[in-house]
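A protein record in our archive is deliberately plain, so that people and models can read it alike. The tokens are whole numbers drawn from a learned vocabulary of local backbone shapes. For reference, a complete record is included directly beneath this paragraph.
>
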Amino acid sequence: MRADRTALRAASEALSDAGLSASITVRELGSGRELSIAPDAAYPLASVVKLPLALAVLRDAEAGRIDLGEAIDFDPTARTPGLTGLCRFEHRSRVAIGDLLALAMSVSDDTAADALFAHCPPDRVTGLLRELGLTAITVRHPIRELHETLAARLAPDEMPQALALAIQASTRGGGHLVPQLDVTHANAGTARALVDLLDRIWTDPALDRERAPLRRLLGMNLMRHRLAPDLESDDAEWFSKTGTFLHLRHEAGVLEHADGSAFAIAVLSESSVPARRQPGAEQALGYATRLLHDRVRASRTVH
């Protein structure tokens, strides 16, 4: 349809103008009506990996393999580097596994996520994804491995060099000289696969028991600077998980409208601009996503 092509062209131009390469998929749940840009391009997932991790932890809790009330002891000298939650704790503490889920999803706490990975290892998360028939998302390592990159070890005043390394070290076919950014070695997935996962979480009877707690966790996300400004309103609620690492800016979630319609949305992107703060990039991602969402929603009145 001409209107679809117009929306896709405008979105692609906005992304290009902001120095972004991006993969976006927007799907109406129920009808399956979908619009996308490069939906099958694989990206390292960064903190978006906490979405399948949370699902796997909840699944294990339902099966009795994990007790969400079990308290875990934390030594601040062994924490995963990060800017939020337990990553910033300076004293010993005890936190229940269920509360680790809340920290990992609401403030993207990397120490909390790695504690969850200790109870639900990457191969178990990937195994659940395969059981659900999802083959384009693979979880290979805990969050700590992201901080083993040369780029992540540089001092704050060396961030331009870190970003330049991340941008310039890619190879053909999605590879990268930094293993944690190589989709064949990293936690990786595609926008379409993430939308497939969200679709299953929201609609699959086999996930009935995990749906409500995971929806609640996604609704607790406090990282609302990327897509939420363009998607949320008094009549639309956004449930999501973000992911940010070096030049990567991602977000995946479900937008529920007051009229009962719901849209699974996944945005994976990388920037070619060696700057840590890029409000223009954030705005372009929100604008492009809104264009695709509005076009998919408008098509409901046509079919």
The chain has a mean pLDDT of 89. The first strand starts at residue 20 and ends at 28. Residues 2-55+121-301 form a domain with the Beta-lactamase fold (CATH 3.40.710.10).
